[in-house]
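ARCHIVE CARD
CATEGORY: sequence design from structure
SOURCE FIELD: tokenized fold
FIELD CONTENT:
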């Protein structure tokens, strides 16, 4: 946690704090005995680690539980959710959202604004700096209880997770996000790809808490995926997301922003779905375009046929993900969080049909627990992983 707290801890216990806190986050409350068993530590070491965590307010003792079998009854230890907080900022394409998030991933004070997608990065970052100041002030969290800032960005980030390299849907290049925010806020800052950060949030606190491997699929301006395997965010060779949207699903299809043709994004992305609505003479009525299409499909056979085509291509994309990576759970986020359950079930059926037979029974699709702007939770989870659970 803080440098002071870290310097107080001895060699034996250093590096164990994160492990113990993670166990309590995922399985708590637990007794010291149970913690020691799960962490593979001696009872003495565990007692010391827990004392430190109680000392800095990260955990507390709760009810005394009598264990089954032999031995003394133990006292449960659990995380104090409000012990520390982080600030999560999502920089989306045309919008920024922010929130103050506790160590159990719960978001309290929030803030947000929109910007023109032609704006330069420096101007938008200036507004983000102001938003961070406003958030800290409104939340009223003591300075030493605020651990840092996580920023979720719509594109790949550098190795050190300090810069946004090249968002495909914004005219920005190599933006030094952390270098701008750290001196202005006095808080350590980490930058992560938005889709990857949301995958992590679903695995830690959300719809995939119970799963060993999770694929998070995010539909908004584009469609991308993030993977979490055995609790670890998957980092491929490039620090972006899995470019599910650029899987070719239509032979000789429409041109794509990536320079290719017939990519999934030419069928399923906000832009493509809006174009489809327009072609069918429909309005979005203030809804997400996918939800709007689903809404009228029951009374318009031509819309229903179009939706069949969309589901088919989407299912082909998801089936490719399943065949290649076999995640236990696929969590559908962003604009998917606004569609009815029946559509998720239909998509799951379509995905199963297109999946290798022996994998079929394991295909599980869930709706995101994070809503449209899951990037705030994603950004915060990235910061918590680094500044609290490490
Ligand atoms: Zn493409």
């Amino acid at each position: 946690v803080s440098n002071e707290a870290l310097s107080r801890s001895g060699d034996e216990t250093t590096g164990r704090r994160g492990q113990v806190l993670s166990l309590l986050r995922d399985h708590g409350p637990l007794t010291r005995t149970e913690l020691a068993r799960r962490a593979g530590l001696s009872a003495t070491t565990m007692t010391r680690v827990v004392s430190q965590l109680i000392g800095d307010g990260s955990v507390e003792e709760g009810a005394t539980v009598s264990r089954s079998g032999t031995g003394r009854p133990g006292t449960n230890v659990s995380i104090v959710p409000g012990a520390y907080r982080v600030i999560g900022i999502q920089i989306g394409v045309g919008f920024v959202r922010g929130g103050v998030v506790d160590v159990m991933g719960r978001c309290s004070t929030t803030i947000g604004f929109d910007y023109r997608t032609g704006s330069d990065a420096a101007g938008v970052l200036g507004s983000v700096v102001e938003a961070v100041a406003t958030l800290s002030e409104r939340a009223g969290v003591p300075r030493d209880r605020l651990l840092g800032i996580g920023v979720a960005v719509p594109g790949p980030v550098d190795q050190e997770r300090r810069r946004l390299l090249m968002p495909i849907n914004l005219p920005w290049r190599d933006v030094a996000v952390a270098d701008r925010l750290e001196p202005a806020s006095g808080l350590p800052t980490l930058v992560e790809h938005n889709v990857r950060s949301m995958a992590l949030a679903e695995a830690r606190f959300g719809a995939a808490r119970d799963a060993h491997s999770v694929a998070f699929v995010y539909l908004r301006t584009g469609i991308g995926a993030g993977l979490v395997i055995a609790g670890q965010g998957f980092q491929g060779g490039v620090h972006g997301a899995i470019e599910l949207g650029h899987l070719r699903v239509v032979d000789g299809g429409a041109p794509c922003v990536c320079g290719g043709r017939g990519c999934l994004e030419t069928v399923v992305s906000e832009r493509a779905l809006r174009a489809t609505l327009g072609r069918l003479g429909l309005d979005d009525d203030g809804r997400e375009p996918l939800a709007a299409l689903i809404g009228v499909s029951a009374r318009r056979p031509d819309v229903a046929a179009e939706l069949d085509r969309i589901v088919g291509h989407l299912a082909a994309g998801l089936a490719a993900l399943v065949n290649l990576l076999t995640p236990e759970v696929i969590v559908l986020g962003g604009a998917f969080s606004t569609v009815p359950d029946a559509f998720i079930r239909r998509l799951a059926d379509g995905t199963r049909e297109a999946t290798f037979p022996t994998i079929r029974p394991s295909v599980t699709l869930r709706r995101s627990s994070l809503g449209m702007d899951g990037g705030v939770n994603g950004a915060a989870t990235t910061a918590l992983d680094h500044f609290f659970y490490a």
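CARD ANNOTATION: The chain has a mean pLDDT of 91. The longest helix spans residues 301-325.
SHELF: design records, drawer C
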